[in-house]
Structures are given as C-alpha cells and as structure tokens.
Amino acid sequence: MTRIRAALTVLPMVAALGLAGCGSSTDDGGKGETGGITGTVTVFAAASLTESFTTLGRQFEAAHPGVRVTFNFAGSSALATQITQGAPADVFASAAPKNMATVTDAGAADGSPTVFARNQLVIAVPKGNPGRITGLTDLTRPGAKVALCAEQVPCGAAATKALDAAGVKLTPVTLEQDVKGALSKVTLGEVDAALVYRTDVRSAAAQVDGVEFPESAGAINDYPVVVLKDAPNPTAARAFVEHVRSDQGRAVLTGAGFQPPTGS
Amino acid sequence: MTAVRDAPAPRTRRRPGRRVPVALLVPAALGLLFLVLPLAGLLARTPWATLPQRLTAPGLLTALWLSVQCATLATLLCLACGVPLAWLLARVEFPGRRVVRALVTVPLVLPPVVGGVALLLVFGRNGLLGQWLDSTVGLTLPFTTTGVVLAEAFVAMPFLVIAVEGALRGADSRYEEAAATLGAGRWTTFTHVTLPLIAPGVAAGAVLCWARALGEFGATITFAGNYPGRTQTMPLAVYLALETDLDTAIVLSLILLTVSVAILAGLRDRWIGSP
Predict the structure, then answer these.
(1) How wide is the angle at C-alpha A167 spanned by C-alphas A165 and A168, nearest 5°?
(2) Are residues A189 and B240, on separate chains, in Cβ contact within 8 Å?
C-alpha cells in the first residue's frame, strides 16, 4: 500500500517535469524563429569530414539557437546508397564527385553541388617513422606492409591514381573499406604505412606522422556538398551549406588540413 | 472416479495435433514473415537480366571458395576445442565455473569489430602473443588466411559450446555412470558413451558455428583485412560491392545465401534427420 501511495505522489512530479521540458523546447523554437531557422538539420558527410564537420555543426548551433545539427559519418559511397534508398537527410557532403554523381543522377539533389574543399593523399607512418619511408618507392621494399583503401572508395581511387602517376606497383596487405580503416592499421602498428588523406594524419597526429609525396598532386579529391531534394528541413539545410562555404567554415576546414577549392 | 480421471488425459494428449492455438499461430507467422521478408526484398531487387554475366565476374568464385574453406576450418577448430570445453563446463565441478561460462559467451555480446581489434592486440604484430610469435617463429597472423580462420573461430565458437553444453546437460548421465562402474576411465567414457550420445547436439552446434563463421564480417575485416584471394571472403566482397553497385551486392548476397542454405539443408538431413 505504502509503495502505491509513494508512486502516486511521484507521478504528478514526473508529469510536471515533462511539461517543463515541453515548455523549454517551445521557447527554443520561438528564439530560432527570429532567425528564420528552426528544427534539426541532418547532415550525411564523408568519414574524412568527421572532425571538421563536428566543429562546423557546433558553430552553426551556436549561431542559430534552437537548431540542432545531427551527423551521419560514413564512407561516401555507403552514404550515397543510403540517400538514393530514401534516407531522410538534408545535406550530403561527399569525399569525391563520383559518389555525389550517384545522388545527382538519381535526382535526389536540389540544385547542383558545389566544391567546398580539396584533400590530398599522404603516406601515414607510425610516429617517428621507424621504417624511414620518404616516398612511394619505399613502399615497394620487400617485407614492407602497406594498407590501401579499396578502389571502390574515394581514397582508394585516389591512391591508385597516384601510384599509377608515379609508376609504382605495390602489393598491399589489405584493401580497407574506408580511410579510417586504413589509418587504424597504422595506429595499431600492424602495417608500416598507409595511403590516407592529410586530414586523417592531422587528426591522429599523436600516433602517426605524415610523409608528403609529389605524385599526390595528381590525385586530389574534390569535396562537393549539396542540399537534398527531399530534405525535411530545406531552409536550415541551405543555411548550413552557406556556413560550410563561409570564411569561418573555410578556416575550420583548412585548420583540419583541407585545401580551399580551386579558383578561390 | 477413475473413469473420470482417465478420460481427459488422451484428449489433452491429442489436442496439439488437432488445432493450433491462435495465440501461438499469429506471433509465429509474424516471426516467420519478419525473417523471410528481407529475403523476398533481395529476390525482388535481383537484376535477373544481367545475372549470368554477374555470376561469371572475376573474383566471385575465389571469394566464395575462400569463404567455404575458412568457415569449414574454423568449425573444425571450434569442434576440437569447443567440445572439450563444453564437456568441462557441463561435467566437471570447479571453482569459478559460472565465470568461465560467462566468459565463453563474451564473443556473442562483443561487437565483432571490437573482437577484431582485441585479436589484433593479442595476435597482432605488436600484440601480447603476436610479438613473440613474430620474433621466435617469424609467424604473423594479421592479413593472412589463417587470420580469417582465427577471427571466424573466435566469433563462432560460443555457438558450438552453448549447443554442446546444452546437449550434455540434457543427456542421461546414467549411461556414463554405468560405463564408469564397468571400469571405463573418463576418456573412454567420453569417446565411447558421451560423444555418441550427444552427437546430434554436436552436429547442430557445428552447423550453427559454420553458418556464423560463413557470414562473419566485422572481426575478419578488422583482424585479417581485405585482400582478394587471401582474406576477402564473400561478406567482405558484398560490403565492397555495396560501395559501388547495389545490384552486384544483391547477386553476391544471393549466392552466399543459396550456397549456405543448400549446405545447411543437406547436412541437416544427413546428420540430424529432418523431423
């Protein structure tokens, strides 16, 4: 009996808390309305954008109170498949134009994509570079274990291009399903080197060093971004893309190791 | 009185055969539908027109053959270690048996990718055992076919152990006691009495174990990597195909499904006997 009575006294308190929660959220909505942007923006972004886009999302939320930015970070091709299969996303940021084309060809984009950053390959080696690797040809040394991305994902396509440009033929021990997979094989010390983006090396600077190589200039990835046609929140989506392309956004991206798009 | 008491007994015994209760039939049908519908989705999206040329795509047979080989080797490894482990858990009283039983099921709850990382930390080039293996025997396991077998065995072994332990607990231990009173040692009892007694349970466990090993993805790609002909099994090939071409991924999945269902159905009839 006493237990039931206790439960009955707690019940109204819980209800009150619930109402208070509702109240505060409508307040936020009101504040957001003054800026014209409300609700949640869902951004599908390439795995290599994890660190920089998380920062951009936080800045965007600070500039537009009441707006929430949620991210889905994964390989660009997996994201493209999810979007063409009807995933409810507002914005798509891809690590390569090819995966963006999957989305635009399917008629899932609103307008044409714009390139907002570029990324370049480097050789990731364990901290201190114990194998003393200085360029692509060092990767073909007998016994050297190298991780590459699979050719199906942007970092793998870029790696193949760079290796072809250098005329270097190498047999990797593994073809990883995304760039973070290749990077983790270096941080775990299982391979001597991996071809990853400059931004990935910078994000794992405590465990890996990056070795720049000239042939990567011929295999630079353009990163396009677009608002999606079936975006649940198109107004906020457009504002987020603007923020990515703003000077503040560019500063975050270059800070992470990206290069600005050509012609700007 | 006796007549009244006897009468209902045959009726209750016959009832299950006559009418299935709706309360059981509806959820059962829903459950079946839930399991089969995704399969129907795969079939509906299969690009039948381009199927022949996709089936002859290079690398497909290599991945399929590697999958079947690795899953079989992993199952043999699980049988060799898992059956004795199950016997130990079911038949021998020792301190900490509950803890050991819980530890055996750890790979079931561990996300396979984490399992792969854990394997790297032990058997990897800088791992606890891997470092020693590398320096003394010159043996490295990551990125090798052996690595695939190990990753699959790690994930699949609990299925075998749980099935066999269940069979052992269900088996009548009086036969073993009789063998013991007739002078048989524990080893002889195990090989001549216990094993034949629980053979169906072992077979069922092995089939589950093989199926789990065949579909293994996370631990394999993390521990053994992905390289065609060496470590790229069908699930890895499916995942990478998904990156570029949904249709190819569907075809690969269907092949994997067909082969596994065919083998499982065949084995079931031979080993366990269809009910």
Answers:
(1) 115
(2) no
